[in-house]
Amino acid sequence: MRILLVEDDQALGEGIRTALKPEGYTVDWLQDGASSLHALSHESFELAILDLGLPRMDGLQVLKHLRAAANPVPVLILTARDATSDRIAGLDAGADDYLIKPFDVAELKARLRALLRRSFQRPQPALEYRGISLDPASQVVEYQGQTINLPRKEFLLLHELLIQPGRVLTRDKLQQALYGWDEEVESNALEVHVHHLRKKFFPELIRTVRGVGYLVDK
Ligand code: CA
Questions:
Q1: How many whole angstroms from 44 Cα to the centroid of ligand 1?
Q2: What is the pLDDT of residues 21-31, one digit of tens each?
């Protein structure tokens, strides 16, 4: 579960990131509006936590740009206690929820769980591919009618590949989808996951594009 955290307060940002890590979230953290809009537009996140008061484009503008581009990523905004008008503007601009600073991390976690539940309940058809069925909502994977239990990273990798068959996904993009920006990744981690998926399904499932990345054929 990859989350983009956008918060320019160093202590708060560190605190949120530290609190979310044990929950199994991959948290990438940016501290200004412009680079977060760029990241949200070019990479895939399951959710964004967006502070409103930010340098280089405020959070409200980021949100407006996202929604104007029909980007559906669930967004939780962080606002100051006295800024009722910000909250209203944020919700009007397409925020899915908000928290008022200072907040309890337990509440933040509960809000994130609720948002993610809601977003997975949006109709997302199961992906079907040559005998494989992957249901993003229930996270169940079947192959020829048998349930296959995949570790989280393998599930994420298979999901990334199956939602865009016929498209070469670069190593960088896949690594970011699996690990985020900061997590230390063994240089051959991706190869190992690919190897496991080929073994659990069939060898031709994932094609290697030398020097670039991987794809599943259309
Ligand atoms: Ca701020």
A1: 23
A2: 888 888 999 99
Same domain, 115 and 134: no
**Is residue 116 within 8 Å of 47, Cβ to Cβ?**
yes
pTM of the model: 0.72
Distance from the CA of 6 to the center of ligand 1, in angstroms?
A: 9
Give 98 Cα–ligand 1 centroid separation in angstroms. 14
Gap from CA of 56 to ligand 1 centroid (Å): 11
- Dump the DSSP string for 130-157: TTEEEETTTTEEEETTEE----HHHHHH
**Do 116 and 172 reside in the same domain of the chain?**
no
CB-based contacts of 130: which residues, under 8 Å, 6+ apart?
Answer: 202, 205
Q: Is residue 162 domain-shared with residue 142, that is, in the same domain?
A: yes
CA–centroid distance, residue 121 to ligand 1 (Å): 31
Domain coverage including residue 146? 127-215
Domain boundary among 97, 120, 143: 120
> H or E stretch including 10?
helix 10-20
Count structural domains, the chain. Answer: 2
pLDDT tens digit string along 32-88? Answer: 999 999 999 988 899 999 999 999 999 999 999 999 998 889 999 999 877 788 889
Verify that 107 and 167 share a domain, yes or no: no
Let me know whether 104 and 135 are in one domain.
no
Q: Ligand 1: distance of its center to the CA of 65 in Å?
A: 19
